[in-house]
Amino acid sequence: MTTKLTICIPSRNRGPIAFNQVQQTLPLIDSNWDILVLDNCSSTYRDEYRKIEEWSKTEPRLKYFRQSENVQFPGNLLSCFHQVNSPYIQIVGDEDFSNPPVVRDALSVLDEFPEVGIIRGSIGTIPGVQSRNLFNYPDQLLAAGAEALSGFMLTTNYVSGVIYNRKLLSERGVIDRFATGLKNNGMVAIYAHMYLDMLIASVCNVVTSKEIICYEGEEEFGPPSLQDAANNPAYSFGGRIEQFIAFRDVLRSACHSHEESDPNLILNLYLKLCDKYAFMFVRDRYLHEFRNMDVKLLLNSFKSMALAALDIAEFGHCKDLMRGEVEKRFQMAYVHL
Predict the structure, then answer these.
(1) Quick one: CA dihedral 65, 68, 73, 79, positive or negative?
(2) ∠107-110-115 over CA atoms, to 5°?
(3) 53 contacts 129 by C-beta, under 8 angstroms
(4) pTM of the model
(5) Is-contact 300 246, C-beta < 8 A?
(6) For residue range 266-283, what is the model confidence (pLDDT) as tens digits?
(7) Is a pLDDT exceeding 90 seen at residue 233?
(8) Residues 109, 10, 22, 56: what is their CA dihedral angle, to the nearest 10 degrees?
(9) Rounded to 5 degrees, what are φ and ψ at 104?
(10) Residue 188: is it exposed, middle or buried by C-beta count within 10 angstroms (0-12/13-18/19+)?
(11) In CATH, which of 3.60.20.10, 3.40.640.10, 3.90.550.10, 3.90.226.10 is domain 5-216?
C-alpha cells in the first residue's frame, strides 16, 4: 500500500514522551499513514527508543530512524523530507499530539489544490496542560509570493503540526534550497522552520486554518535552566543580532524569488522582523539580567542595529519613513521591560 502521509517526530534524549506519542497516535491513523520517529543520536533514554525500534519491526505503519551523530534540530528537520516516500508529511514535536480528523481534512485540501505547499493549522491545548504555544490562525488561502509572505511569515515560531506538500516542495527545488541555506548560514539554522516557511511561501500557495491540527503536550523534561539558556550563544545578545541580520538577508532573497515583486513587501516584512525580535528580546530579558547586563541599554543597542540594517538598496527611497517605523516597534518593547 502506498503511504500518503508520514507523521514525523523529531526527537533527542526524550524517549519516554516520544514513545508515549507513538502509543497515543498510532491507533488513530489511517492504514496508508506512517509514523516516523527520527532519533537524533540520543545519548539518554535509549531503552524507550529501542522499544520504538523493536515495535517498528512488527508494525508496518511505524518507522524508526537514528542519526549516526547529533545533527541538531535543523538536520533532523531536513531528514524528515529525505527519509520518507510519502507525498505529504506532518511535523509533530515529540511532546505534542497530531489531531488525525483535522489532518484528514487537510489532506483532502492538498489533493484538491496541488499548488498548496504548506497547511498551517491552529494549535490547541489539552485540559490540565499549561499552554506555551497556543495560536489560532484564520481560514485563508494565500497566493505564492507577496500575499503568502506578508500574510503568513513571522507569525509564530512553532513548527509542530505543520503539514508539508513534500512532493511539490521537491519539484520546485525548495528542499534543495533549504539544505543549501542551512549549510551556508548557521544563524538562519537557529529557526530552521521559519526559514523553510519563507522559501515555501515565496513559490507555493499557503493555507492556514482555524481548525486545531495539533495539541500541545506536557513538556515533561522542562525548558533548559536559566543558566544553560544564558550560556547558549543562540540566545545571547550577539546571537540575536546575528540572527536578525541573517533573516533580513533571506527575506530579501525570498522577496525577489517570484516574478511580480511588490516594492512594499520587503518593507512590511522587515517591520514584522523587528516586531518578532523586539518580542524575543523582551522574552530574553531574564537571561540578560542573569548575566548582570543593563537590559534597557542592550535594547537601545539592538534598536540601533536594526536602524543600521536599513542601509540596503531596497530602503533607499523610504529610509526616513522606515526609521520612524522601526523606532515605534522598539518603543513598544520598552513598555514590557
Answers:
(1) negative
(2) 165
(3) no
(4) 0.93
(5) no
(6) 999 999 999 999 999 998
(7) no
(8) 100
(9) -60, -45
(10) buried
(11) 3.90.550.10
